[in-house]
Design brief:
The protein is of the alpha/beta class. The strands form 2 sheets. Strands 1, 2, 3, 4, 5 and 6 form a 6-stranded mixed β-sheet that branches. The chain contains 5 helices and 8 strands. The chain has helices at about 20-35, 40-50, 110-125, 125-135, 135-145, and strands at about 10-15, 55-60, 60, 65-70, 75-85, 95-105, 155, 165.
Length: about 170
């Protein structure tokens, strides 16, 4: 489920921001500190993707994401904002739930299926509402882990060739 790339320390509830750039900046700093990645690289990846078009998917949810060449496994964070912000999503609803995904550029074939599963999860109104009501990070994570929808594919990389493929049985 979500747990292979999201842990309790990746969940931030009631983050105070001034808008979209502020939210993405704070999320990038948090991810970078937890993973040891360069803050500017994470932020640049998220901003570069956002310039192509909003990652807001509607119903108060955004899924900012970036493909990075400097990571070998996916990284994610879930952020619930203290106050909804304009994210220029398709329905113009302000966003209060942000699920951020950083994905290895070497595993792009598995990225779109994983992103699709995340989108399906957050399209479920009961998931959104339960996360909005969660009182703690572990409660929010438990909500995501108990939902039966997404299962992230395992990524296998053959070291000699760098060939990326989905592992059998995923």
């Amino acid at each position: 489920m979500i747990s292979p790339i999201l842990s309790e320390e990746d969940v931030s509830l009631d983050l105070v921001t001034k808008g979209k750039q502020s939210a993405l900046s704070k999320i990038a700093v948090r991810i970078a500190r937890r993973t040891g990645l360069d803050e500017q690289m994470v932020l640049r990846g998220l901003f570069d993707r956002e310039r192509l078009g909003s990652t807001g998917i509607g119903h108060g949810v955004a899924i900012p994401h970036a493909l990075l060449g400097t990571i070998s496994s996916p990284v994610a964070s879930l952020t619930r904002l203290a106050q909804p912000i304009n994210f220029e999503g398709p329905d113009d609803d302000p966003v209060d739930l942000i699920y951020t995904v950083l994905w290895p550029r070497s595993a792009t074939s598995a990225f779109l299926p994983a992103l699709s599963q995340i989108c399906r999860l957050f399209r479920a109104s009961q998931v959104r509402e339960r996360i909005r009501q969660a009182r703690s990070s572990d409660e929010a994570l438990a909500i995501l882990e108990t939902e039966p929808l997404p299962k992230f594919p395992s990524i296998c990389i053959l070291p000699a060739s760098g060939l990326v493929f989905w592992c059998p049985g995923t």
